[in-house]
Design brief:
By secondary structure, the chain is an alpha+beta fold. Helix content is about 45%, strand content about 20%. It is built from eleven helices and eleven strands. The longest helix is centred in the last third of the chain and has 23 residues. GO terms for molecular function: DNA-binding transcription factor activity; sequence-specific DNA binding.
Length: about 270
């Protein structure tokens, strides 16, 4: 995990330099969330598609995806190395000059969102250390932000999205910001590309995914505990949502992503 420059903090949630070796070629699951994903592979082009839709497959030296409700299938040859960024929805306006809603459900490259950054993968490839690559990336992002006017999403939409993330019902969030539920639905969809209810589901799922991942990395995983801590009614509820968003059950996801970890704490519930 690399530090994010303070000037980029409202737009870039995290920057991860990754170097991962697998047992062999396979497919990594790119999970849906309330963030946009920006990946810059180093050793080989990134081959990614929406799970279950091979016709959506793209191959390139950069990948930018908006919010999505289907897992991404990231194909690899046994080794992956590069930089991965999580962007806030406001980051789409700051970096690319468009609301995140304009990118929802799409797999794009840098040339699609900002031709001026199309040579960034080549610039990164010329550097021989993570420190140098991160410096090149930071400079490029700061330049992209500075040459665009400050993003201007409606503040009440931002407040409503924050309330939704905390689990406030859609109708209550609409009342809080002074909109009808229908009006709020239109504004949120225009801003991020999904309805308020779907955004809320993604936010809860993102929390569950983070907890599941942390527990798996710690070597102790209880799906039932993750469900309870994430605000799901029960383990069966989490299992249904996980299958909808990830394309597999929670324990199957753990088996695929962390093959040496065993889930504990009750029988797995299925949809």
């Amino acid at each position: 995990m690399a530090a994010v420059h303070p000037a980029l903090a409202p737009w870039v949630r995290s920057i991860v330099a990754y170097d991962v070796a697998f047992a062999g070629p396979g497919v990594h699951i790119g999970m849906p969330s309330t963030d946009l994903t920006f990946v810059l592979p180093l050793d080989e082009p990134l081959a990614v598609s929406w799970d279950g839709d091979p016709g959506s497959r793209t191959v390139g030296w950069s990948s930018v995806s908006g919010l999505h409700t289907t897992a991404a299938a990231i194909h690899h040859g046994g080794h992956q190395r590069g930089l991965q960024l999580s962007l806030t929805t406001a980051g789409a306006r700051a970096l690319w000059g468009v609301p995140a809603g304009a990118m929802a459900g799409q797999l794009l490259g840098l040339a699609d969102v900002d031709p001026r950054l199309a040579d960034l993968p080549e610039r990164l490839a010329h550097e021989d250390s993570w420190e140098a690559r991160l410096a090149v990336l930071e400079h490029a992002l700061l330049d992209a932000v500075r040459r665009r006017p400050p993003p201007q999403p409606r503040p009440e939409v931002g407040r409503a999205m924050a309330l939704l993330t905390r689990g406030v019902p859609v109708a209550a969030a609409a009342d809080d910001v002074g909109y009808s539920r229908r009006r709020l639905t239109t504004l949120v969809h225009d801003e991020v590309g999904v309805s308020p209810k779907t955004y809320q589901r993604l936010a809860r799922f993102s929390g569950a995914h983070a907890r599941m991942r942390a527990a798996a990395l710690a070597g102790e995983l209880s799906v039932a505990r993750v469900a309870a801590d994430s605000g799901y009614a029960d383990q069966a509820h989490l299992a249904r949502e996980w299958t909808d968003f990830a394309g597999c059950s929670p324990t199957e996801w753990v088996r695929r992503e962390f093959p040496i970890v065993q889930a504990t704490g009750g029988q797995e519930a299925t949809a």
